[in-house]
Specification:
The complex is a heterotrimer of chains A (168), B (407) and C (442). Chain A has five helices and four strands. Chain A is α+β, with helices and mostly antiparallel strands. Chain A folds into two domains: 64 residues, Alpha-Beta Plaits (2-Layer Sandwich); 65 residues, no CATH class. In chain A, helix 3 packs antiparallel against helix 4. The longest helix of chain A has 28 residues. The termini of chain A are close together. Chain B has 407 residues and is an all-alpha fold. Chain B has one domain. In chain B, 71% of the residues lie in helices and 0% in strands. Chain B is built from 14 helices and no strands. The termini of chain B are far apart. Chain C has a single domain, classed as Formate dehydrogenase/DMSO reductase domain (Formate dehydrogenase/DMSO reductase fold, Up-down Bundle). Helices cover 71% and strands 0% of the residues of chain C. Chain C contains 15 helices and no strands. Chain C starts with 9 loop residues before the first helix and ends with a helix. Classes of the chains: A alpha+beta (168), B mainly alpha (407), C mainly alpha (442). At the A-C interface, strand 2, helix 3 and helix 4 of A face helix 1, helix 5, helix 7 and helix 15 of C.
């Protein structure tokens, strides 16, 4: 919104970031984003993020793959119905391997599709405000406050031990 | 020494009601065994005996393997669980005794004695088998006890008074000084030796006591299949034991949900490994279609009367746990995991019967499993419970979780 | 015994790894050139074989499978320990693997690429591979999905796809780091391939979950792929091949050779790139300990096979297992037995596990031994199967040697190109490892 300020605070380690995030939650200002070079379970817990649903895509892919594998091998065997080496035409024992490989393959495809959809990658727009320190050694907290509180937020972040940058 | 009406030192582990329950079940098992033995088909009695002896010995051997592997791999999450796992190893002396008793049934348990063996008789002869398997058990259990000696030096505090047995054990450790570093190094060494012995000796037992029942059949993976299955079973029993200890408020044993989760994941992993080892044998034999090999598999999985049992084993010990354990939350729930483990163990008990039964009862038309087999199983459950409770009673430190370990 | 005196910081890691991506020296390009030359030798021999026919290789009756299969299984095996390190050890939360994850995963991808070439090479008429792909066609021709060779097609393609996706996904955060520290054309390229990664919590949330699933899926895949490769042999009735133990035995052997290749790659790499503080001697020691374990499994499998051959009292099996140590290819057998099972015992001694020269030497010898293991399994069994008058010998020809040189060159060529253009150590995983040690204990 036009009368909001977006300010990024850049912290040098996880501990100070955590305490800053906890403190920020007490204030009326909102936390828009937190960037970090490594995943942090504690920060995710503080931000009350829900568990990711990527797994459902993976599971769906796996189930589809399992049946595809069996279906493909059974269908192709039934086209000519040739008895090979005395084995049954639709032989479930070896077809299990086909089903298994397809299960893994399609589960991985589901995983990747889920990841792309959920992360909304590739997304180059977020790079505009990106600070290169966030992928290196620093943790970046992006907070939003009304214009009037700009100095208060800046001081708050500086007191918590961060470098600051005004994004918009 | 007061030998009459010995006062049982009671504890939360070992009390009159437990003694009564296990005593009753053991008696039931014994009576059922004798009934079967004196019936028309004494081989049924020995089938049940062999099944249960192998089943519970595997649980004990696998239990100690858990502790040994945790020691070698330095897995921190499993430290609290090594106590109950080592308690399972208390069954070793009982297992050895049961092994010796097995030979009383030599007429039924070794059907190859009546068959044409040719050169194979150099391997399959009673004195040779007895000698090497006895040596095997002694080596395995010996290494296990040496490992426990070192492990318990760290775990036990010397001052508890829980009866004469404990006093004797305390003297064992107090008599020599314990240098922590050397003991730890030796503990790791004996853990490694136990692991190697586990693989070799359990394979030997599998070849001699299960595979040899059909002496002209062989499968190179049979030994590995047996020791993988043993670990799978041991994990199931460990889940049940850990859950019981955890859920009892009087016992200072508590696990974090993440530790139950890890144990559940390991259980799931070995469910897959066991099924994979089964499939490797089945697939190769099915595909090669060589009659010397297929007869064994057909009798157990495709021909009646054993076919329904094979499917039951597959569904109960693989199908159901596979589908259920895909779910994340259930692995951290001790009650449901115990239930699932109990189901899996039941299936694996059937699996033992499935391997042994057709060889000891060839050419039968009805399933060789009845009420008495079940009662003998109950008897052995009682025996195992009694042994584990006694071990925990004498060594209550095994049921203390180490809360300081991070995970 | 780790470098506690001078702990690494996040910035140190970034700087060390990014320094490896600086423009390369003449020596580097000379090495690349040499390896490219080796690749060309292989390509030339292959081209000659396509023109002249697969008969210029040594495979014939009775030994129809020779170095092409040996190399195929060898390279698939090498690929496996990369997935072990990146996937299985991730599930086991063994953080000592973090310094070598990226290189190991890369090793997997390139090894599968090289392995995947060999079925093509072995075909002779390479275009015939069309008939192995389930593409609907006018003649309604389909593959025989019961054949283990078809399982191979599926397993190897799945493995290549999954490994590449796993490798790329794992690299995403690192590619963003490179993007943020580079300029000009390099920055543009890395901006594109890092897909706009910013390290936001939303991204990490999905990423860590997906990575866990990747690891959980890659684990059974690894086991299945080498089991499938072993079933190429055991599903037939050839004596010495038809054995139920092959699947786990091959998987263990694969990890054995792969871990050794990890050592072979890591030891020079850490020297050349000054990674000593990142890929510490402790990491290498842990790899050596794992090699002891896999060596035992391989030894156990050898022992079991010999025992079973005797126990079976099958005259053909007995002859095969007498022929292996004492027959025409006895030299290969003893190289295999000594290098794979006896040599790793030296790692029981701590000084050996922490000595770079011993680690390097043993790793090379184990790989030689594992190559010969496949040679012994494949060639001896087929050179003497059921009918004595059909027994025969096999020797590789210069075409096969050329292609082998090409395959090894291709692998190292790809790897050497990789280390200079993409981050060869996972900065993200290293920082995670440091983060755990630094801030929160345990």
């Amino acid at each position: 919104m036009a009368d909001d300020r977006t300010i990024m605070g850049i912290f040098s380690d996880e501990e100070t970031t955590l305490s800053a995030v906890r403190a920020l939650k007490e204030t009326p200002w909102s936390i828009e984003n937190v960037m970090s070079p490594i995943p942090s379970r504690e920060i995710a817990d503080e931000l009350s993020t829900k568990p990711s649903r990527v797994g459902y895509f993976t599971l769906a892919g796996g189930i589809i793959g399992f049946f595809t594998g069996f279906a493909l091998s059974a269908y192709t065997a039934l086209q000519w119905q040739l008895v090979v080496s005395g084995k049954p035409i639709v032989a479930l024992v070896p077809f299990f391997i086909v089903g298994f490989e397809f299960t893994i393959l399609f589960a991985v495809f589901g995983n990747v599709v889920g990841l792309i959809l959920k992360m909304k990658l590739p997304d180059y727009r977020g790079l505009a405000d990106h600070d290169s320190r966030c992928t290196g050694a620093c943790f970046c907290v992006v907070a939003v406050c009304p214009v009037s509180d700009e100095q208060k937020l800046l001081n708050f972040l500086k007191n918590s031990g961060a470098d600051t940058r005004i994004l918009s | 020494m007061n030998k009459t009406a010995a006062k049982i030192t009671e504890s939360v582990f070992f009390n009159r009601s437990l003694l009564r329950m296990t005593g009753v079940s053991i008696v039931i098992g014994l009576v059922s065994f004798i009934i079967l033995l004196s019936g028309k088909h004494p081989e049924r009695a020995w089938q049940a005996y062999l099944t249960n002896f192998l089943f519970w010995s595997s649980v004990a051997q696998g239990g100690l393997l858990f502790s040994a592997v945790m020691q070698v791999a330095r897995g921190r999450w499993g430290r609290s669980l090594t106590g109950p796992a080592e308690a399972l190893a208390g069954f070793f002396p009982v297992s050895f005794l049961l092994y010796l008793i097995l030979f009383l049934g030599y007429k039924q348990v070794f059907p190859w004695r009546y068959m044409e063996l040719g050169e194979k008789a150099a391997w399959l002869n009673l004195p040779g088998l007895f000698a090497r398997d006895t040596a095997g058990f002694l080596i395995l259990y010996g290494l296990g006890f040496i490992y426990l000696y070192h492990s318990w030096a760290f775990r036990l505090n010397r001052k508890t008074d829980a009866g004469k047995t404990r006093e004797y054990l305390n003297r064992l450790w107090n008599s020599r000084s314990v240098d922590p570093d050397r003991f730890r190094a030796r503990m790791t060494l004996f853990a490694v030796l136990y692991i190697i012995a586990y693989a070799v000796i359990l394979s030997l037992i599998a070849y001699d006591l299960i595979m040899a029942l059909d002496p002209h059949w062989y499968s190179a993976l049979f030994g590995a299949y047996h020791f993988v299955k043993a670990f799978y079973m041991a994990l199931g029993v460990l889940i049940i034991l850990a859950s019981i200890l955890h859920m009892n408020p009087q016992i200072p044993f508590a696990l974090r949900p993440s530790q139950f989760h890890d144990l559940g994941k390991l259980f799931f992993a070995f469910c897959l490994v066991w099924a994979d080892f089964f499939y490797c044998q089945f697939m190769v034999i099915w595909y090669g279609n060589i009659s010397e090999e297929t007869a064994y598999v057909i009798a157990r999985t495709m021909a009646s009367p054993w076919r329904p049992m094979a499917w039951l084993v597959f569904i109960v010990s693989f199908g159901i746990p596979f589908l259920i354990l895909l779910n994340r939350k259930i692995k951290s729930n001790p009650k449901w995991m115990s239930l699932l483990s109990a189901l899996v163990l039941l299936g694996l008990w059937l699996e033992h019967t499935l391997l042994i039964g057709p060889s000891l009862n060839p050419h039968v038309h009805t399933l060789q499993l009845g009420i008495f087999d079940g009662l003998i199983f109950v008897g052995f459950i009682g025996l195992m419970t009694l042994v584990v409770a006694s071990v925990l009673h004498v060594l209550p430190e095994l049921a203390e979780s180490r809360i300081s370990e991070g995970s | 015994m780790s470098e506690n005196a001078n702990p690494l910081t996040f910035g140190d890691i970034d700087r060390r790894v990014l320094a490896t991506l600086a423009p390369a020296s003449r020596g580097y390009w000379a090495a690349v050139g040499l390896l490219a030359f080796g690749v060309l030798i292989g390509a030339g021999c292959w081209a000659y074989q396509i023109a002249a026919g697969v008969g210029v290789a040594g495979m014939n009756n009775p030994v129809a499978w020779g170095t092409y299969l040996i190399n195929f299984v060898f390279w698939v095996g090498i690929a496996h320990s990369g997935t072990l390190i990146s996937a299985i050890l991730h599930l086991m939360r063994a953080s000592w693997r973090n310094p070598i994850v990226r290189a190991a995963e890369t090793m997997t991808v390139f090894a599968v690429c090289v392995a995947g070439l060999f079925p093509f090479i072995h075909l002779g008429r390479v275009w015939m591979v069309y008939y192995m792909l389930p593409i609907p066609n006018q003649r309604n021709l389909w593959q025989n999905f019961q054949s283990p060779l078809m399982f191979d097609v599926l397993a190897i393609s799945t493995y290549l796809t999954v490994s590449t996706l796993f490798w790329y996904t794992g690299m995403l955060p690192d590619l963003a780091v490179v993007r943020d520290r580079s300029t000009g054309k390099k920055k543009k390229i890395f901006t594109i391939i890092s897909l706009g990664w910013t390290g936001a919590q939303e991204q990490w949330r999905h990423y860590t979950r997906a990575y866990l699933f990747f690891a959980a899926l890659a684990t059974p895949l690894v086991i299945s792929v080498h089991s499938v490769a072993s079933w190429d042999f055991t599903l037939g009735v050839v004596p010495g091949w038809h054995s139920t133990i092959f699947a786990p035995y091959f998987v263990a052997g694969a990890i054995h050779s792969g871990l050794s290749m990890v050592l072979t790659l890591m030891i020079p790499m850490r020297r050349i790139f000054n990674y000593e503080k990142i890929i510490t001697i402790d990491v290498l020691e842990n790899v050596a300990k794992a090699i002891i374990f896999t060596g035992f499994i391989v030894a156990f499998a050898y022992g079991t096979e010999f025992f079973m051959a005797w126990y079976s009292q099958n005259p053909v099996e007995l002859e095969v297992f007498r022929n292996r140590p004492f027959g025409d290819y006895a030299a290969g057998f003893w190289i295999m037995a000594v290098c794979n099972t006896i040599l790793p015992v030296v790692f029981f001694f701590r000084f050996a596990r922490r000595s770079l020269s011993i680690l390097f030497m043993v790793s090379i010898l184990v790989n030689i031994g594992m190559w010969f293991e496949r040679f012994v399994i494949i060639v001896t069994s087929v050179s003497r199967d059921f009918i004595p008058h059909a027994w025969g010998l096999y020797a590789p020809t210069w075409v096969e040697f050329g292609i082998m040189i090409g395959s090894f060159s291709l692998f190292f060529f790809l790897f050497v190109l990789f280390v200079k253009h993409l981050p060869s150590v996972s900065m993200t995983e290293m920082k995670e490892m440091l983060g755990k040690r630094g801030g929160h204990g345990g």
